[in-house]
Amino acid sequence: MRSLLLAISFLTIFPVYGNRIADDREFSNSLYFYPLVGFIIGMILLLVLKGAEMLGPGLATEALLLLVWVAVTGALHLDGLMDSADGLFSGRERERKLEIMKDSRVGAMGAVALVVALLLKLAFLDNLSPVDKAWVILVAPAAGRFMMVYAVCRYPYARPAGGLGAAFGGQAGWPQLTGAALLLAAGAWLVFAGTALLAVAIAVVTGMTIAAWIARQLGGLTGDSFGALCECTETVFIMAAVLLLH
Description:
This protein is an all-alpha fold. Helices cover 74% and strands 0% of the residues. The chain has one domain (2-245). The chain has helices at residues 2-11, 24-30, 34-51, 59-73, 76-88, 94-102, 108-125, 130-154, 174-218, 223-245. The mean pLDDT is 91.
């Protein structure tokens, strides 16, 4: 239970873990529950979708969904996406890319990445019927957070000095990755069977490709990379779901 509460506190704005200090083992054990936290976020979005039905057809519902989606996560992963875009597309050497990613200021590439990610989510969600939109927003956050588990377990941390994302690396491995994968697969199957699983597979393979590319650029991954992979995987999942359904 402590590991689940830690995962919720780390990935959302809800401080259910309290003021306790977690060690590396607790951080690594919390990885098992990342997809579950994604499904919890999805259930919050489902409640928002249900409440927004009074708005009728149009982009208002999708805009409200994205607003709550960002608010519940504290824009943590979008911040990682922006920082990663600024560094990775800077055209500089590895060390300079890492310095740029650490800078809290947002550059042109970060702003572009933010706008593109939000617009893609908005546009593709608007192409879904209310029924399909429900299962897509339920599974998408879980797929994104599974990709974070994959990144933590499969790649070294890129910064020699360490960082918040480095807290997972010492204890995380195949057990956490396998457990998170099974949880995601089981949840996706229960939600929308084969279609959801296929959309998850497309999103995860795409995320793996992006992770490998980032690792080649940086010699590993960082906390910002984890957030960027989450956002990219969520976006690709939504796009894949729309294409599969149509």
